[in-house]
Amino acid sequence: MPDNPVIVALDYPTADAALALAGRLDPQLCRVKVGKELFTAAGPALVEALQARGFEVFLDLKFHDIPNTVAGAVRAAAGLGVWMVNVHAGGGRRMLEAAVGALAGSSRPPLLIAVTVLTSMSEEDLRETGCEEPIVERVSRYAALTADCGLDGVVCSAQEAPRLRLERGDDFCLVTPGIRLAGDSAGDQRRVLTPADAIAAGSSYLVIGRSITGADDPLAALERVHRELGTPA
Ligand SMILES: O=C(O)c1cc(=O)[nH]c(=O)n1[C@@H]1O[C@H](COP(=O)(O)O)[C@@H](O)[C@H]1O
């Protein structure tokens, strides 16, 4: 586990709202994630504003397109100086390899991570897409492809982390959303674990949104996560 495994998801509709929450957090205690809603509304300037406040940024745009397009998008993300960026493993080998290739000339490449099966999906949801494999098998297959293409790791649920740790070893990065503090509602998530259980299962990084951003005191919720984990060391 890294010293600081917590990534707070800034799922907000405006830069002002995101910066207000960031102002209540401590960049020593977490990284932040900028996703589709916030980036569409606020763009690269918001990423730069967060970095200027000392936060490392996970740009979560889950690129999923033809190889040439994804390569360009990943290169643009690297140009923003983000710490982590993601693509969908479902884009296949040539897309994943194009994403890796796009970072080849970068002086400070971000961690490149592939999304496997979204944590909002249940076994039934996956079957309905025509995939008869159990989720853990599908995730394992995507993780093997991701590793083979030279990416740094995957986004998965912490429920799949024990299997992936065994199969992919200690250096493969497991980024796990679907994290809830005990007692919090799962909402639209289907494969959920607490922070402590997720780390025990082998997660490298925990992506936590509403359990922190929806709390009356977000900094206190973040500190509660660290108390449960015994971090930072
Ligand atoms: O790539 C992601 O970050 C992601 C992948 C996934 O499978 N599931 C998932 O929830 N996420 C993101 O993680 C965050 C979870 O937010 P909360 O459910 O509020 O904790 C959201 O910003 C999602 O977009």
From TrEMBL:
<dbReference type="GO" id="GO:0006207">
    <property type="term" value="P:'de novo' pyrimidine nucleobase biosynthetic process"/>
</dbReference>
<dbReference type="InterPro" id="IPR014732">
    <property type="entry name" value="OMPdecase"/>
</dbReference>
<dbReference type="GO" id="GO:0004590">
    <property type="term" value="F:orotidine-5'-phosphate decarboxylase activity"/>
</dbReference>
<feature type="binding site">
    <location>
        <position position="11"/>
    </location>
    <ligand>
        <name>substrate</name>
    </ligand>
</feature>
<feature type="domain" description="Orotidine 5'-phosphate decarboxylase">
    <location>
        <begin position="5"/>
        <end position="225"/>
    </location>
</feature>
<keyword id="KW-0210">Decarboxylase</keyword>
<comment type="function">
    <text>Catalyzes the decarboxylation of orotidine 5'-monophosphate (OMP) to uridine 5'-monophosphate (UMP).</text>
</comment>
<feature type="binding site">
    <location>
        <position position="210"/>
    </location>
    <ligand>
        <name>substrate</name>
    </ligand>
</feature>
<feature type="binding site">
    <location>
        <position position="209"/>
    </location>
    <ligand>
        <name>substrate</name>
    </ligand>
</feature>
<feature type="active site" description="For OMPdecase activity">
    <location>
        <position position="62"/>
    </location>
</feature>
<dbReference type="GO" id="GO:0005829">
    <property type="term" value="C:cytosol"/>
</dbReference>
<feature type="binding site">
    <location>
        <position position="119"/>
    </location>
    <ligand>
        <name>substrate</name>
    </ligand>
</feature>
<feature type="active site" description="For OMPdecase activity">
    <location>
        <position position="60"/>
    </location>
</feature>
<dbReference type="InterPro" id="IPR013785">
    <property type="entry name" value="Aldolase_TIM"/>
</dbReference>
<feature type="active site" description="Proton donor">
    <location>
        <position position="62"/>
    </location>
</feature>
<dbReference type="InterPro" id="IPR047596">
    <property type="entry name" value="OMPdecase_bac"/>
</dbReference>
<feature type="binding site">
    <location>
        <position position="33"/>
    </location>
    <ligand>
        <name>substrate</name>
    </ligand>
</feature>
<feature type="binding site">
    <location>
        <position position="189"/>
    </location>
    <ligand>
        <name>substrate</name>
    </ligand>
</feature>
<feature type="binding site">
    <location>
        <position position="180"/>
    </location>
    <ligand>
        <name>substrate</name>
    </ligand>
</feature>
<dbReference type="InterPro" id="IPR001754">
    <property type="entry name" value="OMPdeCOase_dom"/>
</dbReference>
<keyword id="KW-0665">Pyrimidine biosynthesis</keyword>
<comment type="pathway">
    <text>Pyrimidine metabolism; UMP biosynthesis via de novo pathway; UMP from orotate: step 2/2.</text>
</comment>
<dbReference type="Pfam" id="PF00215">
    <property type="entry name" value="OMPdecase"/>
</dbReference>
<protein>
    <recommendedName>
        <fullName>Orotidine 5'-phosphate decarboxylase</fullName>
        <ecNumber>4.1.1.23</ecNumber>
    </recommendedName>
</protein>
<dbReference type="GO" id="GO:0044205">
    <property type="term" value="P:'de novo' UMP biosynthetic process"/>
</dbReference>
<feature type="active site" description="For OMPdecase activity">
    <location>
        <position position="65"/>
    </location>
</feature>
<comment type="similarity">
    <text>Belongs to the OMP decarboxylase family. Type 1 subfamily.</text>
</comment>
<comment type="subunit">
    <text>Homodimer.</text>
</comment>
<dbReference type="InterPro" id="IPR018089">
    <property type="entry name" value="OMPdecase_AS"/>
</dbReference>
<keyword id="KW-0456">Lyase</keyword>
<dbReference type="InterPro" id="IPR011060">
    <property type="entry name" value="RibuloseP-bd_barrel"/>
</dbReference>
<feature type="binding site">
    <location>
        <begin position="60"/>
        <end position="69"/>
    </location>
    <ligand>
        <name>substrate</name>
    </ligand>
</feature>
